[in-house]
Specification:
- The chain is globular, with a radius of gyration of 27 Å.
- The protein is built from 27 helices and 31 strands.
- Strand 10 and strand 11 form a beta hairpin.
- The chain has an eight-stranded mixed sheet, with no helix packed on it. The chain has a five-stranded mixed sheet with strand order 17-18-19-21-20, covered by helices on one side.
- With about 850 residues, it is an alpha+beta fold.
- Helix content is about 40%, strand content about 20%.
- The mean pLDDT is about 100.
- Helix 15 packs antiparallel against helix 16.
- The structure holds ligand BES and zinc ion.
- Ligand BES binds next to strand 20, helix 2 and helix 3.
Length: about 850
């Protein structure tokens, strides 16, 4: 291992840095393998700090020269940074370092992607650019001069000078180093313009490589919508003369909110109807909004330390979800978010990687950009809003921006603005930030003399480091339905604060049916033992769109679990319920397509495990296939009519309406292919005039065991478009049968286009392997071994992406002894790899529970 004893950083050890930074001047002399970075930094002693050690972070740097107040000095340099004696008064630090962007495959710091220079500094990448106090509570104004012969030279802030071979940028807003960015390349601008609410003109540009000009329009429109929405809804105006977005092909994450210069993974910004699916369009719109919204929630107000990551990420995810709800359909967005939370956050929170929304320790911060920090962090804000109400939320946010603009803050600061706004004591609510694990709510009902009593109990299982749990404040939105389906009590938010608590509803004529956790009002598991008939009733009548969908989902899950456990036949409640939903032409097509979704196989495995069964991935797969087939047969007569309902006359638009029709059309095609062997899908494929249709048809064909000709045709058509080739790789793994999945995946890794050093390509294949539940868990462990082989290979090249993908193994303890042993053996093999990165070491040891 690289670090004999990896160091753990603790929240409780926070200390301010001994010096403040008044200004930073950077000069870059770009060269592929020997870029020179000259820094000139004005420091002064920090009156708030007690420790005056002058330590600057620095990694993979060659120090050429260091100067303090004009006098050359000799710092004490290690592989983590340097220390040196400094005056006890303001002073100027100057340094020249050399770095090698051309060999930077980790994609952190300054690196190269297709001949273009770009940076990624969050969380701790700036230290790979120059020596600096690389921590978010050190904020400063930056001036950056770039010398290089590339046509486009960009950095943060406003342009302050340029000529042949150089450009200078000045960012007037103090910022932490993680928001620094530089881009240099042969790029083309897709321009745009925005006038802010106070009448300032902002120049917008989306910078892409030649050839991608045709994929910019949608992203640019999304940016303008985001700018307008943040003004309208949060009163937040943009604060520079220019806003640039750059698309890069090699990027570990989706995108990054660098001040005035957002850098995006190409897959998260480039779009065209021919090459992008509706899901791509929706994701792009959301990511552009997300990174733009960080300008206020993240940049103007940043994090004191990385333990506070949810301060900016949870809030910004919450804001981008609000934006998507406003731009598209609120219920559909809520359902998507619940599906996503259950698929990604619940397994994390209920396994060895469980950690609080605000973690208390870490070894490698990159490992804490998790579904818990992000998605549960956003849910916590949603609960807060539900508890205090919309108006108080708006006031609290205004206070937050007024009080903390320009500061590096904590969750305590955030909670305090809500306390000060509402007068409410939020001490117990704060447990959402410190307690890990998913609370489970169980329900008991009583009916007597016109009074309905609902008794809710909460319980959270022990998680790593937290054996005992205290009750949390859980907003449970409840409505009551009468026997005829009318709503007899409108939605009310019950505040569950005790381990067990009763709520009464009196004056009712008959025993109601309760619709609990409406709108998914809290990120919890609701254990409500409804009968199939009650679920079918809610599926038919619930006035809350989320819970209506949930009723169908629960009915599906109960049906599948019975099929798996008891070898039961698919129940008629589910099949008839689906038929009724599909027939209901008043229901939004997007909503109807969601109704047809099933719990993921991984979710079913979790449910089996939780109820004391050992999940058998093959049995789960078989049950899902059987239910799908039964559904197709049951709704068969309706399929032609449904198909005609999804036809679109208008020219292609990625809007929610059309996307919803295509989604339902896709679901119908899938059921149809189960009955006709793919005949209709082959027609659809041939007629497809957009990527959603083309990819859906191809997917249906492959799942029906056909489509090899179309698959080859697809590759020929799109082999020059890397984002579509990613889809071609991924789809083959996703649609492979359990038996063939490992071999299909291995064969793809031998394809000449498998550029495994590109994170998008690696994830397209290996991410799809991990997501193919029955294939990954195929008996014999071939899936496990294949993934481990590739993680071991990728680790020295790109530790961050390797570490993230280790989470494929996080559920290993759910399965039978043989599978457990095989997964454990692979995890141990990874852990024992010589020189394994700190990132991967931490992940594997946490998963193993070491
Ligand atoms: N700040 C992050 C990007 C980031 C993550 C940088 C981890 C360094 C390490 C950015 O704002 C972000 O959260 N991006 C998300 C997309 C977003 C829509 C949730 C991403 O990249 O996946
Ligand atoms: Zn973010």
């Amino acid at each position: 291992m690289r670090d004999a004893a990896p160091t753990t950083i603790y929240l409780k050890d926070y200390m301010p840095f001994g010096y403040l930074v008044d200004s930073v001047h950077l000069t870059f002399d770009l060269a592929d393998h020997a870029t020179r970075v000259t820094s000139r930094i004005a420091f002064c002693p920090n009156p708030e700090a007690t420790d005056r050690t002058f330590f600057l972070h620095g990694e993979d740097l060659t120090l050429i020269r260091a100067v303090i107040d004009g006098v050359e000095v000799t710092p004490n340099v290690t592989d983590k940074g340097l220390t040196v004696d400094v005056p006890d008064a303001p002073f100027i630090w100057e340094a020249v370092v050399e770095i090698d962007p051309g060999n930077n495959t980790a994609l952190e710091g300054l690196y190269m992607s297709n001949g273009m220079y770009c940076t990624q500094c969050e969380a701790e990448g700036f230290r790979k650019i120059t020596y600096y106090p690389d921590r978010p509570d050190v904020m400063s104004v930056f001036t950056v001069r770039i010398n290089g012969d590339l046509p486009v030279l960009l950095s943060n802030g406003n342009p302050s000078g340029k000529s042949e071979g150089w450009a200078e940028w000045t960012d007037p807003w103090p910022k932490p180093a993680y928001l620094f960015a530089l881009v240099a390349g042969d790029l083309i601008a897709h321009p745009g313009q925005f006038t802010t609410m106070s009448g300032r003109d902002v120049e917008l540009n989306l910078w892409v490589r030649p050839g991608d000009e045709g994929k910019c329009a949608f992203g640019m429109e999304a940016l303008k919508k985001s700018m307008k929405w943040d003004e309208d809804v949060y009163g937040r105006e943009y604060d520079l003369d220019m806003f640039n977005i750059v698309a890069v092909d090699d990027f570990n994450m989706g995108a990054m909110e660098n001040k005035g210069l957002n850098i995006f993974n190409s897959s998260a910004v480039l779009a065209s109807p021919e090459t992008s699916t509706d899901a791509n369009f929706e994701r792009i719109e959301a990511i552009i909004a997300h990174e733009y919204f960080h300008n206020w929630t993240g940049n103007r107000i940043t994090c004191r330390d990385w333990f506070q990551l949810c301060l900016k990420e949870g809030l910004t995810v919450f804001r981008d979800a609000q934006f998507t709800s406003d731009m598209r359909s609120a219920p559909v967005k809520r359902i998507h978010d619940a599906i996503d939370l259950r698929a990604r956050q619940f397994p994390e929170d209920n396994g060895p990687l469980s950690h609080p929304v605000r973690p208390e320790s870490f070894q490698e911060i990159n490992n804490f950009y998790t579904a818990t920090v992000y998605e549960k962090g956003a849910e916590v804000i949603g609960m807060l809003k539900r508890l205090v109400g919309d108006e108080a939320y708006a006031q609290a946010l205004k206070l937050y921006f007024d009080r903390h603009d320009g500061q590096a803050c904590t969750i305590e600061d955030w909670i305090k603005v809500f306390e000060d706004t509402t007068g409410r004591d939020l001490t117990q609510f704060k447990r959402w930030y410190s307690q890990s694990g998913t609370p489970r709510i169980s329900v008991a009902e009583d009916w007597q003399d016109g009074t309905y009593t609902l008794t809710l109990s909460q319980r959270t299982k022990p998680t790593p480091g937290q054996p005992e749990k205290l009750p949390q404040v859980i907003p449970v939105a409840v409505g009551l339905l009468g026997q005829n389906g009318d709503e007899v009590r409108a939605t009310e938010v019950l505040e569950l604060t005790e381990a067990e608590q009763s709520f009464t509803f009196s004056g009712l004529a008959a025993k109601p049916v309760a619709s609990i956790l409406r709108d998914f009002s809290a990120p919890v598991i609701l254990e409500h033992d409804h009968t199939d008939a009650e679920r079918a009733f809610l599926l038919a009548h619930d006035t809350d769109p989320f819970n209506r969908w949930q009723a169908g989902r629960s009915l599906a899950q109960d049906t599948l679990l019975r099929m798996i456990r008891e070898d039961a036949a698919p129940g008629t409640n589910y099949l008839d319920g689906m038929l009724a939903v599909l027939r209901d032409g008043d229901l939004d097509p997007a909503y109807r397509s969601l109704m047809l979704g099933l719990p993921t196989q991984s979710e079913l495995a979790a449910a089996l495990f939780e109820s004391g069964n050992v999940p058998d991935p093959m049995a789960i797969w078989t049950a899902v296939e059987t239910l799908r087939q039964a559904t197709a047969q049951h709704v068969q007569d309706l399929l032609p009519r449904l198909h005609s309902e999804t036809l679109i006359d208008a020219p292609f638009s990625p809007d929610a309406d059309q996307a919803g029709k295509r989604a339902l059309g896709g679901a119908v095609l899938y059921l149809t292919s189960r009955l006709d062997g793919g005949a209709k899908a082959a027609e659809e494929y041939a007629a497809a005039d957009n990527m959603t249709r083309q990819l859906t048809a191809l997917s249906c064909l492959l799942r029906a065991g056909a489509g090899q000709t179309e698959l080859a045709d697809f590759y020929r058509q799109w082999q020059h478009d890397r984002l579509v080739v990613d889809k071609w790789f991924g789809l083959q793994v996703t649609t492979a049968s359990p038996e063939t999945t490992p071999d299909v995946t291995r064969t793809l890794t031998e394809h000449p286009d498998f550029n495994w050093k590109n994170p998008n390509r690696f994830r397209a294949v290996m991410g799809a392997l991990a997501m193919n539940h029955a294939g990954f868990h195929r008996a014999g462990g071939a899936g496990y071994a294949l993934l481990a082989d590739w993680l071991i290979r990728l680790d020295p090249v790109n530790p961050q992406t390797t570490a993230r993908m280790c989470s494929a193994f996080q559920t290993w303890k759910r399965y039978d002894v043989d599978r457990q042993d095989r997964m454990k053996a692979q995890l141990t093999r990874i852990a024992d790899t010589p020189n394994l990165s700190r990132d991967t070491t931490e992940m594997v040891s946490r998963i193993l529970g070491a």
